[in-house]
Write a structure and sequence with these properties.
elongated; two-stranded antiparallel sheet; single chain
């Protein structure tokens, strides 16, 4: 049985071209940049797809923001703000406490 049933591990020239064009539209300064390598990986998450956000336990200065399902990238700006606050103050913001 395939442990990654929805994971494609082969990148085609068509896919790289498509991605390069999309990046060029979003960031015109990158138009014409050559792709010399690519990296494919599996995206792992917790079974309930809920994130884990915590820090300083058991290692001081170690913070984690992981375990997201497929929506983590959409939430990264707001979680980044609160994780930065947590790291700067050492106090976990209320909004993050349910994910400890």
């Amino acid at each position: 049985m395939d442990p990654w049933p929805n994971y494609i591990n082969q990148t085609t020239a068509h896919y790289i071209k498509h991605q390069a064009e999309a990046i060029g539209e979003m960031l015109p300064c990158l138009r014409g940049v050559e792709v010399h390598a690519h990296l494919g990986r599996a995206c792992r998450h917790d079974p309930d797809m809920a994130p884990i956000m915590d820090g300083n336990i058991p290692v001081e200065g170690y913070y984690m923001d992981c375990g997201w399902g497929y929506f983590g990238f959409k939430s990264s700006t707001v979680t980044g703000k609160y994780m930065a606050q947590y790291m700067a103050t050492g106090e976990c913001p209320e909004i993050l406490k349910p994910f400890r």
